[in-house]
Specification:
about 30% helix, 15 strands, 2 domains, nine-stranded mixed sheet, alpha/beta, binds nicotinamide-adenine-dinucleotide, about 350 residues, six-stranded parallel sheet, Dihydrodipicolinate Reductase, domain 2, globular, Rossmann fold
């Protein structure tokens, strides 16, 4: 019998395809209620997915004693308030990425988690990909030695998600549009900081707005970053890609013994002057599918929900705790600030 009642905050695409479908694979929990400001959509989603209670006021969902934990799946700029309200109401929280969109909210959430002692998982779902995990393990096992340069890209074509008639109109709503550096850049930066177990101390960013007219913000950022472990970080986040993006992908690590690039482990043969593939993680996991994979966005949401419940039960600790998620936001808001001012920005990691 299910012993965790789950509430969903924001009942759109990622809530339905990712979190609700994910929780429904775990017998320890039941998705009991959904809150959304769009009542028609919320009722339609709840009926389709078998969620018994629908609310258009957050406090009504949070008042329910049979809800022990929530997933926050609202638009990015609302995560801070929604997570904070849930923590104050005594609920464990799984928050979609990015944790929030301001440094102040990140610090507020870190404080609230410390004060309440509740479980908080930052929704960095790429951490659950076995090929990325294997790359991180390879680095941690010393396969590439000490890292001197780390890269990550999120170079996307967001046309299906942009505009008032798209799947997610909030992303280009001029009142609070999604900044692609936060909304997209958090994926590779989250991976980079998790892999290296470090933080960004300083950022210098360039940005432009040339490719995606529907977004009322910069659509391309390039960040250079000073990492606390001495490595240099490079991050690209862009939403106006109209073709192939032949980069190393979300996670690239250059070490003094080898390289992890494009899902493969390389080492140079200095005599042949050639890089050899030592291990191909992409190939190793080519037939792997996330537990729920008949959805529009195929990610490891069920595995992430399972990990969240494991954390609540004390079986493990969050792969991305609130402070790790806050460090990602701190670096990205520093990037936005640097692009705006044209100056390097020191990152505050004192949450
Ligand atoms: N992990 C991933 O790979 C991934 C992929 C896509 C989206 N996301 C994240 O998931 C979140 C939701 O994105 P989505 O694609 O599901 O968008 P969506 O538009 O499908 O869903 C957002 C929902 O929030 C509702 N909403 C708006 N204002 C609200 C409020 N004040 N209170 C409650 N609900 C409100 C909207 O009515 C909508 O139903 C975003 O933070 C986004 O960045 C993550």
């Amino acid at each position: 019998m299910a012993h965790f009642g789950i509430g969903i905050i924001g009942g759109g695409g990622i809530a339905a395809e990712g979190h609700i479908r994910g929780y429904q694979t775990d017998p320890r929990c039941q998705v009991a209620a959904l809150y959304d400001v769009d009542e028609v959509k919320a009722r339609e989603q709840a009926q389709r997915l078998g969620v018994p209670h629908v609310y258009t006021r957050l406090d009504e969902l949070l008042e329910r004693p049979d809800i022990h934990a929530v997933s926050v799946c609202s638009p990015d700029h609302l995560h801070g308030d929604h997570c904070h309200a849930a923590l104050l109401a005594g609920k464990h929280v799984l928050c979609e990425k990015p944790l929030c969109t301001t440094w102040e909210d990140a610090a507020r959430l870190a404080r609230a988690v410390r004060q309440t002692g509740l479980t908080f998982l930052g929704g960095h779902v790429y951490h659950f990909r076995p090929d990325y995990r294997a790359m991180v393990d390879a680095y941690r096992n010393g396969e590439i030695g000490a890292v001197w340069l780390a890269e990550g890209d999120y170079i996307s074509d967001m046309r299906a998600f942009y505009g008032p008639t798209s799947h997610t109109p909030w992303r280009t709503d001029p009142r609070a549009p999604q900044d692609i550096l936060l909304g997209g850049g958090c994926h590779p930066l989250g991976l980079m900081l998790w892999a290296l177990d470090t933080r960004v101390t300083e950022v210098f960013a360039l940005a432009n707005h040339r490719a995606e007219p529907q977004l009322p913000l910069n659509d391309c950022y390039v960040l250079t970053m000073r990492l606390a472990n001495g490595a240099i970080g490079k991050l690209i986040a862009a939403s106006g890609n109209r073709g192939y993006a032949p980069t190393g992908g979300h996670l690239v690590l250059y070490g003094d013994k080898g390289t992890l690039w494009g899902g493969q482990l390389y080492r140079n043969d200095p005599d042949a002057h050639r890089a050899e593939v030592i291990h191909d993680f992409k190939q190793q996991f080519k037939d792997h599918r996330p537990r729920v994979h008949d959805t529009r966005q195929v990610h490891h949401f069920a595995e992430q929900c399972e990990h969240f419940l494991d954390c609540i039960e004390g079986k493990t600790t969050p792969l991305t705790g609130v402070e790790a998620a806050a460090r990602v936001v701190a670096a990205l808001v520093a990037g936005v600030e640097s692009a705006r001012t044209g100056q390097p920005v020191t990152v505050r990691n004192d949450f």
